[in-house]
Amino acid sequence: MHFFWVDERCVGPDDADSNYGAAKAVLLDPLGVGTKQVHRIEGEREPVDEADRYASEVRESFGLQAGAMPPFDVLHLGMGADAHTASLFPQEPLIENREGITTSVYAALRSSYRVTLLPGAILSARWIFFLVTGDDKRSTLKSVVEGKYDPSIRPVQLFDREGKDVAWFLDRAAAQDLT
What we know:
By secondary structure, the protein is of the alpha/beta class. The chain has helices at about 20-30, 45-60, 120-125, 140-145, 155-160, 170-175; strands at about 5, 5-10, 40, 75, 100-105, 110-115, 125-130, 165-170. It has one domain: Rossmann fold (3-Layer(aba) Sandwich). A three-stranded antiparallel sheet has the order 2-6-5. A three-stranded parallel sheet has the order 4-7-8. The longest helix is centred in the N-terminal third of the chain and has 16 residues, at about 45-60.
């Protein structure tokens, strides 16, 4: 089993905001996952360079030909209170990119850079699951699931509606407004 990252904040692995750091502490280290099985986005690097490096690592790991997308088995995504997923935010033109594997993105509302998989790479996954928790996401979740389809405003809808096999795991707080 190999572990890849969907996105990462541009911080070091010991930073409290590091997705890799959190996964290492609660999943990878307790399971004894070897470093050769972990393909992390190195958030401590310069964002544009890291996006290129990570795309190359993904291509090499899967033995991809030019233009091919990685056949991930499972992608675990979350959803922000603004309906973003991965690091694809509302009004971000990258939501249309089905050709590249990764990119760097500046999250203006969060004043930070991130490196993320692009829609084409995410949609290539055999199975996508969303884990959404918290009262702060309940109205957004309702608009995503029951509202008009508009991934430019609610990027998570793209993967919910166009993913191959999609499952949602919700807590009561997030799900309480769904009909």
